[in-house]
Amino acid sequence: MSARPTPPQAPPPHPPPPPRLLARARELAQPGRRRVLGITGAPGAGKSTLAGQIVAALDGLAVLVPMDGFHLARRELERLGRSHRKGAPDTFDPHGYAALLTRLRTPDAGTTVYAPAFDRTLEEPVAGSIPVPPEVPLVVTEGNYLLHDTGPWASIRPLLDEIWFLELEPGVRVRRLVDRHVRFGKERAYAERWVRDSDEANARLVARGRDRADLVVPMP
């Protein structure tokens, strides 16, 4: 008798976010009006983790729409000669991101909006991945450049009802960032070089927007 295949393991549930942050997000998630909460910070600061915790804890009152869904595709980055610094502000489509946020702020009754996601295994954006029903009161969006004030990025901040800036001790953040790159298939030496030469340059840009956040959140 052949053994039964082992069913795939369900992903572990998100741990609860800090109570004060959940309470603040819950105030925004009031039925009858669409709000947009932005979460920003340097690469590796914990943006996607906290955003996922908030959305899970709100249990149907929020949807996560990451900025990373607006990465330019690898082929386009190669055509533009920018693939060696993927993650810099000009390797995204900020106009498309702003257009989506504008549409999400004023939902049409009965119309679900589909947002793109970013597949870290493929290292590519994937269109039409995230349904945002019109009755969901809160959209949580996270990404590096929500407070960047250069060029088309300056149009993002006015589209957010509230924005949090996450801070993590730099040594811890860099270690976690290298580990994440390794987990998704990069050799450690390559990951360390990429973090030093690319991610940390982007982190310095992100830090310039800290004082424009509504809340600065120290991360453990």
What does the model show?
The protein has 220 residues and is α/β, with parallel strands linked by helices. It has a single domain, classed as P-loop containing nucleotide triphosphate hydrolases (Rossmann fold), CATH 3.40.50. 34% of the residues lie in helices and 19% in strands. The protein has six helices and seven strands; from the N terminus they run H-E-H-E-H-H-E-E-E-E-H-H-E. It has helices spanning 19-28, 47-58, 74-80, 94-105, 170-183, 188-207; strands at 35-41, 62-64, 113-119, 124-132, 138-142, 162-167, 215-218. The strands form two sheets. A five-stranded parallel β-sheet has the order 2-5-1-6-7. Strands 3-4 form a two-stranded antiparallel sheet. A hairpin with a 4-residue loop joins strand 3 and strand 4 (124-132). Helix 5 packs across helix 6. Residues 1-12 have low confidence and may be disordered.
How would you summarize this macromolecular structure in one to three sentences?
This protein is of the alpha/beta class.
User: What's the CATH topology label?
Assistant: Rossmann fold
CATH superfamily: P-loop containing nucleotide triphosphate hydrolases
Question: H/E series, N to C?
Answer: HEHEHHEEEEHHE
What is the helix fraction of residues, given as a range? 25-40%
Form type:
globular
Count of alpha and pi helical runs:
6
Low-confidence stretches are: 1-12
Class by SSE composition:
alpha/beta
CATH architecture: 3-Layer(aba) Sandwich
> CATH top level?
Alpha Beta
Q: From the structure provided, what is the oligomeric state, counting identical versus distinct chains? A: single chain
Radius of gyration over all CA atoms, rounded: 18 Å
What's the structural domain tally?
Answer: 1
Structure summary, number of beta strands: 7
Distance between termini?
A: 50 Å
Approximate strand percentage: 15-25%
Strand order of the largest sheet: 2-5-1-6-7
Largest beta-sheet details: 5 strands, parallel
Mean pLDDT: 93
